[in-house]
Amino acid sequence: MSLPLIDHIWRVRGDVPIDPLLSPEEVFARLDPLLRSPGTTVSAAGETLTYSKHNPAAQDKLATFTRGQLRIERVGAGAVLRFDLFSHALLLCFLAPLLFLGFAQMAVAINAWEGAGADASEKADKKDEKPKPVKVLNPVDQFLGAPAPEDPNKKKKDEKKDEGRHSPDEGYFMAGVFALIYLVGRWLEPWLVRRRFRAALANPPAAV
């Protein structure tokens, strides 16, 4: 698997058109309200702006992307703002299903190991254990349709079978949940960030 394909898991790249008459300072000034938030460090040099976030707040509109680079490029008579953003949230949502699948497979392996041990123990016990007698209904109870008494040997066997079982279902379920979250987020977050950049670039900064 190529590195760019792996890199695509947690990075979002794209561009939005900008007014070619705007200077880099004017472009970044329009983006400033979107970028300036508690825990965010911003650095601009020429036509490139980089930022990084430390423990962003939930209301931060770019909280999903903890660091990134914005670069202005002239394309013919126009201009675009290219962005390259990194998301820890997307990376964690991608890795979480693998973790829960590992838990599920661990449960399957433990069940197999415990089952093998239980079978060996059951075979050893059968040599010394005598089966318990099964109660028989008297003719009157049989005539009245009373239910037959349970076989104590079968009940004991079923209890041993279920004892110590570890279900992998929870692991598979959580893996599916996080896989769905990742797929939705991988499509939704790039769309949202483009929308926010367009909205910020369309509005001049407020006069001080």
Please describe the topology of this protein.
Elements: H1 3-7, E1 11-18, H2 24-35, E2 40-45, E3 48-53, E4 67-75, E5 78-86, H3 88-128, H4 139-144, H5 152-162, H6 169-202
Antiparallel strand pairs: 1-5, 2-3, 3-4, 4-5
Helix pairs in contact: 2-6, 3-6
Describe this structure in words.
The chain has 208 residues and is an alpha+beta fold. It has two domains: 3-89 and 183-202, Alpha-D-Glucose-1,6-Bisphosphate, Chain A, domain 4; 92-177, no CATH class. Helices cover 52% and strands 18% of the residues. It is built from six helices and five strands. It has helices at residues 3-7, 24-35, 88-128, 139-144, 152-162, 169-202; strands at 11-18, 40-45, 48-53, 67-75, 78-86. It has a five-stranded antiparallel β-sheet, with helices on one face. A hairpin with a 2-residue loop joins strand 4 (67-75) and strand 5. Helix 2 crosses helix 6 and helix 3 (88-128) runs antiparallel to helix 6 (169-202). The model has no long low-confidence stretch (mean pLDDT 83). Keywords: Membrane, Transmembrane, Transmembrane helix. The chain crosses the membrane at residues 89-113, 171-188. Residues 142-168 are annotated as: Disordered.
Helix content: 40-55%
Which consecutive residue ranges, at least 5 long each, have pLDDT under 50?
none
Derived from helix and strand composition plus strand pairing, the structural class reads alpha+beta
CATH class of the largest domain: Alpha Beta
Enumerate the strands of the largest sheet in spatial order, edge to edge or round the barrel: 1-5-4-3-2
The structural domain count equals 2
CATH architecture label of the largest domain: 2-Layer Sandwich
The tally of helices reads: 6
| Estimated radius of gyration | 32 Å
Distance between the termini: 51 Å
Oligomer type: single chain
